[in-house]
Automatic annotation (TrEMBL):
Annotated SUPFAM superfamilies: S-adenosyl-L-methionine-dependent methyltransferases
Enzyme nomenclature, EC number: 2.1.1.44
Domain Histidine-specific methyltransferase SAM-dependent: 21-325
Keyword Glycosyltransferase: no
Organism of provenance: Chitinophaga pollutisoli
Any one GO molecular function term: L-histidine N(alpha)-methyltransferase activity
Protein name (record): L-histidine N(Alpha)-methyltransferase
Keywords associated with the record: Methyltransferase, Transferase
Length: 326
């Protein structure tokens, strides 16, 4: 039985097809690029956990400080306008930061429904299992899928406002133009009076930013190289990781923090039946983590149809959770 199934072609899932299409399209463009949303397979999830514990990666600690110390203030700013509301979180992850807000949310009696949205089914199952125990009375309605589709699915309960959370500087993985398109789309799904709570990493000493994406232990390098390993495994490819150099950059004049993998030699790589050629020193653009200024954040709000309500920052002023109203 085993040998029979082994000779059958592996089922070509829709997800694999989309992954292959995106990878080939990206590597056949000029300049070559890959999409950072594919970083997060099981190994990528584990590496991102390691990154979050690195001394150089300040983002998580800054936002944790904001939510630990200012969740009550965030909830009262919302409560001042909306007496009852549902919470929706885009890219909820393990919710280790959001849990502080959820506690205040329940305490304030503003609502008990929480819709965590995540592309990882494992994450959603985990939240569904653990959160109701940690926060008695919380009604967790996990949604596994793409942000916009699931946001539409979460729907609007008549008589209740919605508060959409998009934390952790996930918005940074869009270019400013892409971010504008994405947030305008979120706005279209909301009604006047609804809220968006969104995390932005701020422009600061360029050295600090570059170090955060170039940790000494090499987790960020492995996080980038892991996508090549994932492509090898899932798309029948033959990348050799040691023939690529991880090259992180930060441009303080634009706030663009970009990472590249640079080919160390002329080489050809087979991917799902296609051949991709690399010249020595040719880069693959892997990820952007855009950094913003307070002015840039305000401008982003108004060009996407939101009114800024209040900014919540950490003690060092390195990170902002901005509360906007539709
Ligand atoms: C998960 C998107 C917030 O861009 O800072 C960390 C991902 N990339 N180190 C970020 C990441 C390299 C991270 N976000």
């Amino acid at each position: 039985m085993r040998s029979v199934t082994a000779t059958l072609a592996a089922p070509v899932s829709k997800a694999r097809q989309a992954f292959l299409r995106d990878v080939l399209e990206g590597l056949q463009s000029q300049p070559k690029r890959l999409q950072s949303k594919y970083f997060y397979d099981a190994a990528g999830d584990a590496l991102f956990q390691q990154i979050m514990h690195c001394p150089e990666y300040y983002l998580t600690r800054c936002e944790m400080e904001i939510l630990e110390t200012q969740s009550a203030a965030i909830v009262s700013a919302i409560r001042a306008v909306a007496s009852q509301a549902d919470l929706v979180e885009l890219g909820a992850g393990d919710a280790s930061k959001s849990i502080h807000l959820l506690r205040e949310w329940m305490r304030a009696g503003i609502g008990n429904r929480y819709y965590p949205i995540d592309i990882s089914g494992n994450i959603i199952r985990h939240l569904q299992d653990t959160l109701p125990e940690q926060i008695p009375g919380l009604d967790v309605q996990g949604l596994n899928g793409e942000y916009m589709e699931m946001l539409a699915r979460s729907g609007q309960t008549p008589g209740r406002a919605r508060v959409v959370m998009f934390m952790g500087s996930s918005i940074g993985n869009f270019t400013p133009e892409e971010a504008m398109g994405f947030l305008s789309e979120v706005r279209r799904q909301l009604r006047p009076g609804d809220f968006l709570l969104i995390g932005f990493d701020l422009q600061k000493n360029p050295r600090l930013i570059l170090d955060a994406y170039n940790d000494r232990q090499g987790f960020t390098r492995d996080f980038n190289l892991n996508l090549l390993t994932r492509i090898n495994r899932e798309l029948d490819a033959d990348f050799q990781r040691h023939h690529f150099l991880h090259y992180p950059t930060y441009d303080p004049s634009t706030g663009a923090c970009k990472s590249f993998l640079v080919s160390l030699r002329d080489q050809a790589v087979h991917i799902g039946g296609s051949i991709i050629r690399f010249r020595k020193d040719e880069p693959i653009y892997m990820e952007i983590s855009q950094k913003y200024t307070p002015d840039g954040i305000r401008e982003m709000a108004s060009s996407c149809g939101f009114a800024p309500v209040k900014n919540f920052t950490d003690d060092k002023n390195w990170f902002v959770d901005a509360l906007w109203q539709a």
